Amino acid sequence: MEPIEANFAESELELPSEPVGLNMGPSHPAMHGTIRMVLKLDGETVVGVDVQPGYLHRGQEKMGERGTWQQFFPYTDRLNYVSPMLNNVGYAMAVEKLLGIAVPRKAQILRVIHGELSRITDHLTSNGAVAMELGAMTPFLWFLKVREWIWEVQEAETGARMTHSYLRIGGTAHPPTPNFVGTVRGLMPRVLDTVREVEALLLRNRIFLDRTQGVGCLDRKLAASMGASGPVLRSAGVDYDVRKDKPYLTYGEVDFDVPVGTDGDNYDRFMVRLEEIRQSVRIILQSCDLLEKIEPGSPDDAVGVDDARITMPDKHAVYTTIEGTIRHFKLVMEGIQVPAGEIYQYTEGGNGELGFFLASRGGGNPWRIRVRGPCFFSLQCCAPMITHGMIGDIVPTFGSINMIGGECDR
Amino acid sequence: MAKILLDRLKEQFGDDVIATSSFRGDEVAEVKPGAWKDAARFLRDDSSCQCDYFVDLSAVDNLGCAEAEKGRFEVYVIVHSLGRKHRVRLITRVDGNEPILDSLVDVYSGANWQERECYDMFGIRFRGHPDLRRILLYEEFQGHPLRKDYAANKSQPLVPYRDGTFDKLGPFLADEGMPFNRSPSRDIPGDR
Q: Which residues does A311 contact at the CB level (< 8 Å), separation at least 6?
């Protein structure tokens, strides 16, 4: 065979020695359609990255200032939309803190149960997506099947599959259905079975381990000074969990552990989330016991505070009495009157510390609602995680942060 | 519990601490804008504070309410101690014309995106910020939407395709950013 005539100038044969720019997203499937990364590549190694969020910005904080306090609930459903109830809980507790009211025990326990169900759906989605992005489709489908079971329960309770808006300032919209506790109890072993099945598929899989272990590491000090929270922070070895550090609702009465990682890599984030599913199941089962211990008819048995200025009246009273009609009218038209003040209330959301900073200048409308979405902070940690790594590792690393556009861009 | 933070701040900064308060369990200290960065650094480094965890930074526009007399924008930062499990909210007020404040990025790297968001939404500039540009909105956006004088139903002009070139990946100056254009002459760093 004759040698090919090499007729090129020497310089044309050389590979580029300067870094190459590459635009990843927002329409890249792994970027959820909402994040753009401008990468600087040296071969396949990322040497620089500019992460640009904002493609799902809907001005929720501005919209919040236009309505009443109660009217912000549907917006919170659309923050982290894979764990909507946790956002409901965070916002309801923030307004209640500003009002200075305590919620009846039954409503508190219901919030814990629904919140933990939402945490399970959040972690199932996130872990399923990490596996899927590494080529394992089955865990994703199995996890989504379980997520659908949970959402069916929540749909029966709240009327909506994911945009629940179930909570009210001062309690919940209505009491649980009669077979709520039984259904949840029956569901929990099935959730754990699926988690076990997926573990059997993934945790001895060489491809999965190679792509996750030691990839996307995050230093714990950097994570703290960047404000990372939730599984991203805990996987780096910091045992910060709002439910333990500052117990709210009935979290102080139930027994659960906070899983902590060591390296802050993709594997640790995956494992922390898996373990949190198990811990959430423990919390839910204990909370079901607490719920059943409430004496029927006692003040604890209510699902809303007994205050005509806060809780909506009974529908029957609205249609048959003038007091009920006026109370309903004032609550809908003028809204709950919240005293002037500024507070910051934080709870453990699906992705970490979900905070609401509320400023009231009196009256029925919020002056400022600031949402501290944990994803926004975790996403900021994305640049140090993927810099000096391979371009192919961006996908699992970004997936393991569990960036939810609604919460990140608000 | 977090009272100690307020006491330490008062001890250290004296008159620069305008007021301290505790409302519904939130400890708040108001400082003069000049002491903003020093106070944050003190909270991080002092052995009895050890606030190593950056929680949040944002602002409130007080235009049109009584609070505005003290300064139109109220900027707050919340810091937390992972070891001591206490937190404090530090606030300061800046004037409505040319609002500017020292950047906290040197102290807490997490302040980077939060200050960019604050600039984006309120138009508050941060002195010493390495990369102050809009973050959630785009460079051509007119105005700062969370200001009270920005009408919620205001519409924005259509943005023509940009034909700019750029030769860097950041840091950027304010209002500088990535081109969004789709024209063939687009140039991204190092692209040939």
A: A168, A170, A171, A304, A305
